[in-house]
Amino acid sequence: MSVRNLTVRFGDVVALEDVSLDTPIGHITAIVGGDGAGKTTLLKAMAGLVPITSGTVDTPPRERMGFMPTGAGSWADLSVDENVAFVGGSYGLSGDALAQRAGELLQRAGLSEARDRLAGRLSGGMRNKLGFCLAMLHEPDLLVLDEPSTGVDPVSRVELWRLISEAAARGTAVVLATTYVDEAERSGSVLVLDQGRSLLYGRPPEIVSGYPGVVVETTTPQRSQFAWRHATSFREWWPHTAPDGIEATDMTLEDVAIIESLRQEPA
Fold first, then answer.
1. Residue 249 has pLDDT above 90, yes or no
2. CA of 60: how far to CAs of 48, 57, 116, 142, 221, in Å?
3. Are 235 and 189 found together in one domain?
4. What is the 3-state secondary structure (H, E, C) of 153-179?
5. Residue 265 pLDDT > 80, yes or no?
């Protein structure tokens, strides 16, 4: 399962340009970027929901994919059980098979006691976990999640990641979009997008260890075009070694993403 040299245009707007990634089974791939980076377009292209302009998308047939859109992926005016019945029916699941599968997923998600509650009356974290369960009902080969933890409280984020990790451990290929770099660092591989283009792609530790230069902490940056605010000071990138009298600090994936974005900006 992979995407190769994918370009998507909407009229004169280039949403994605020459983007590639792999989605191995049992592997979590994170797609990171800000608003307008192209994350949702890429996921929708993988799910067959938007036409592609060029390139290839090699993914399972739609019935073997699970897709959780941004915004929880459930119907607010249906109860948890009604959501399960509706989505399960769309995948041909019913009766004992659906009951057993739903029971297992809702138990792991901590939703067993909320089955009669309307989805619209669940907390944000609970509703996102419901959306995850709905996407996993039919045990898909590929699970595509669009910002599943955005706006979710820290405890629910941890619980969602436990569910995502369990899905990958059972052999599902997982691709998720996120704005949180710390989530990308937990993934097997990460694709960083900026304005529809790929800035970085690979395993997080290898991206960081293989990146040139050093990062320093300073209150008086000397290279303002490659410095950014961090808490009460600045972090600053130097392409070779740190300046005399300043000690380099550990570089992070967030640092590398910021540096690469700054390097793309016109001089």
1. yes
2. 10, 10, 33, 7, 49
3. no
4. CHHHHHHHHHHHHHHHHCCCEEEEEEC
5. no
